[in-house]
Design a protein that fits this description.
Androgen-dependent TFPI-regulating protein; mainly alpha; transmembrane
């Protein structure tokens, strides 16, 4: 949502410059954070066992259309973004640093478990400490590969 809001504000700027600060932030968000990691991870785990990421009990509060708005609709919109809008991908070292910061910040879900005793995603409760560490490193590897794929796709299209 942050990316699409920023992209809309950027597009509405009169006489916008391709190299403006706003445009660079938009491109950073797109290249590092918006590419379809959530769609890939969510639906892979959901297909394996929905209770691990989106328990059926949630359906009473969030109907299926909201689930698809959060986890499905973003994919075609992001792919459309690749096709209609060129993005200036940041230097690889800056992008990987940003991915690392977000990855470390995401570890705050462990803090939620430590303080409240409930895992944000039930899947995480099934891992040992070593398994949890491996899962986070695996996810960071996938995110990095998706960044590289997005960079390559952007280069091929534009």
């Amino acid at each position: 949502m942050t990316f699409f809001g920023l992209a809309a504000v950027n597009d509405l700027q009169p006489g916008k410059e391709a190299n403006s600060t706003l445009s660079r932030w938009k491109d950073l968000l797109f290249s590092v954070f918006a590419f379809p990691f959530v769609v890939l991870l969510f639906w892979t785990i959901f297909a394996y066992d929905r209770e691990l990421v989106y328990p059926a009990s949630i359906d009473a509060f969030f109907p299926p259309w909201i689930n698809h708005a959060m986890h499905t609709l973003v994919l075609p919109v992001l792919l459309g973004e690749v096709l209609v809008q060129p993005h200036a991908y940041p230097q690889r070292k800056h992008a990987l640093a940003a991915l690392s910061v977000v990855g470390l910040a995401y570890l705050s879900i462990v803090w939620v478990y430590v303080t409240v005793g409930v895992w944000v995603y039930p899947l995480l409760g099934r891992f040992s400490a070593a398994g949890l560490t491996g899962f986070f490193f695996f996810n960071m590897a996938v995110v990095t590969l998706l960044y590289l794929l997005g960079d390559r796709l952007n280069s091929l299209v534009w």
